[in-house]
């Protein structure tokens, strides 16, 4: 065995999760194109309210299908509601694979409601 091959083998431990052959180039390109085509449906969601507190919290969201109520632990379009607080709702989803698990977190802020205009009320017509 050449000396450089032994160094390569020593640099990659036998039971490391990353010790998998890379996917064929055409499969890697196909997976990348598929990820770019799927839009993230959480981007179109709007958080409009929260009910309760702690583990009994419910988040109310407006999505393309209508209004949805989610309890902590329920999922919407692959995202799981992880927490609710005064700033908004935190969603998580797993990305990666079994060998290299990773989690992506996203904070969805409340929809800002326009403030009422303060002033004199309109006069009724007679």
Task: Provide an overview of this structure.
The strands form two sheets. A four-stranded antiparallel beta sheet has the order 4-5-6-7, with no helix packed on it. A three-stranded antiparallel beta sheet has the order 1-2-3, with no helix packed on it. With 126 residues, it is α+β, with helices and mostly antiparallel strands. The termini are far apart. It has helices spanning 3-11, 25-37; strands spanning 46-51, 58-63, 66-71, 75-76, 79-85, 88-96, 101-109.
Produce a short descriptive summary.
The protein is of the alpha+beta class. The chain has helices spanning 3-11, 25-37; strands spanning 46-51, 58-63, 66-71, 75-76, 79-85, 88-96, 101-109. The strands form two sheets. A four-stranded antiparallel β-sheet has the order 4-5-6-7, with no helix packed on it. A three-stranded antiparallel β-sheet has the order 1-2-3, with no helix packed on it.
Key words describing this protein structure:
126 residues, alpha+beta, 4-stranded antiparallel beta sheet, 17% helix
Trace the largest sheet across and list its strands: 4-5-6-7
How large is the share of residues in beta strands? 35-45%
What form results from the Cα inertia axes?
A: elongated
How many helices? The count is 2
Radius of gyration: 24 Å
Distance between the termini: 102 Å
Sheet with the most strands, sense and barrel status: 4 strands, antiparallel
Helix content: 10-25%
What layout of secondary structure does this protein have?
Blueprint: H1 3-11, H2 25-37, E1 46-51, E2 58-63, E3 66-71, E4 75-76, E5 79-85, E6 88-96, E7 101-109
Antiparallel strand pairs: 1-2, 2-3, 4-5, 5-6, 6-7
């Amino acid at each position: 065995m050449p000396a450089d091959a032994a160094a390569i083998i020593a640099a990659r431990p036998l039971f490391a999760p990353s010790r998998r052959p890379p996917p064929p180039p055409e499969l890697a390109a196909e997976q990348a194109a598929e990820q770019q085509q799927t839009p993230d449906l959480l981007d179109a969601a709007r958080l409009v309210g929260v009910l309760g507190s702690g583990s009994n919290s419910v988040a109310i969201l407006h999505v393309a299908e209508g209004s949805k109520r989610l309890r902590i632990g329920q999922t919407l379009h692959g995202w799981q509601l992880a927490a609710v607080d005064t700033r908004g709702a935190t969603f998580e989803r797993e990305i990666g694979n079994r060998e290299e698990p990773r989690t992506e977190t996203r904070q969805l802020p409340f929809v800002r409601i326009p403030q009422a205009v303060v002033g004199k009320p309109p006069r009724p017509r007679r």
